[in-house]
Amino acid sequence: MKFAASTTAMLATLLANTSAFTVRQSSAAAAFRTVGASRPFSHATKPLAANVMKLSEPQKELLDTVDVFIFDCDGVIWRGDSLIDGIPETLDKLRKANKKMFFVTNNSTKSRAGYKKKFDSLGLDIPAEEIFSSSFAAAAYLEQTKFKESGKKAYIIGEIGICEELDLIGVPYIGGPADSEKEPNMGPGGKLEVDSDVGAVIVGFDRFVNYYKIQYAQLCINEENAEFIATNLDAVTHLTDAQEWAGNGSMVGAIKGCTGQEPTVVGKPSPLMIEYLESKYGVDRKRICMVGDRLDTDVLFGTDNGLKSLLVLSGVTSEEKLLSPENAITPDFYADDINAFFQTEESAVEST
Ligand SMILES: [Mg+2]
């Protein structure tokens, strides 16, 4: 796996010029790191298994020690197109308690503006600057690496979210939805001509991926030396609540398969994003808590970056999976959902 640029110099550029962030893919070894064995949490917490504690005294265990919450969206704030019960009230209480909040999603199909509309449609008034989508991360990475100054354009496998974010930074692009109906000439002597000005191929989740797009990306990377950028590597996603669907890992895998190259990944998990938040808001990362419903992305993002982490059971991870001996990724705490942040110990006990 190739890491997005993470040198001090690149970070300085990032912090000086943009609100951009890039993301480094976690190592496989990190995925199996066990944490939490000796953490000095309250004696009142309840050790269950693998040193994972269910949140029982949220004020003392969490709210008193956290200034910034980073929320994954699907499975934490909403499920599909349905807001999880009680979320608006809980977010209001967090704001009243002067907690900063950021909403992070690896889904690149929408831009930040697109996500703002989704928040609006669900009745949540979230400022756009609190939203970090992987479509924004891709644009931010191009901005960080001064791609625009190269005079090149990007080729997109992905949906409108990436296009809208590139529009905002003035980077020209081709592909994306415009190529969803195309087929290459595969008759005798047939070939696909590509634009020699393509300097980057961005691969995001694309419900209309086809062989034309794969071949175009392959030629740009293999023949034109375009940089291979992936918004994220999620294996599965939740198009519907009826089953898991092949995620962007499948699109990225197709391009890896025909180029032999590893992408620069710009989605979660992101050390530079945390460094950006630390710098911009002057917060100590030990007082940041990552809240998500996935162990291998959200919780790992937290543990890899020295944050607190909290797993909610309102998404894809069951309590059984969390507490299974096979699971080695352990958050500091877990809770049924984020409404538990304001439950008293008595009400938490009553609800179990
Ligand atoms: Mg999620």
Folded structure, characterized:
The structure is a single chain. The model is unreliable at 5-48 (pLDDT under 50). This protein is 34% helix and 18% strand. It has helices at residues 8-17, 28-31, 58-63, 87-96, 112-121, 134-144, 160-169, 211-224, 248-259, 271-281, 295-304, 319-323, 345-351; strands at 46-49, 52-54, 68-72, 78-79, 82-83, 100-105, 131-133, 153-157, 173-175, 198-203, 227-230, 236-237, 245-246, 264-265, 288-292, 308-312, 333-335. The strands form 4 sheets. Strands 1-2-17-16-15-3-6-7 form an 8-stranded mixed β-sheet. Strands 9-8-10-11-14 form a 5-stranded parallel β-sheet, sandwiched between helices. It has a two-stranded antiparallel ribbon with strand order 4-5. The chain has 352 residues and is of the alpha/beta class. Helix 6 (134-144) packs parallel to helix 7 and helix 8 crosses helix 9 (248-259). The termini are far apart. The longest helix is centred in the middle third of the chain and has 14 residues, at 211-224.
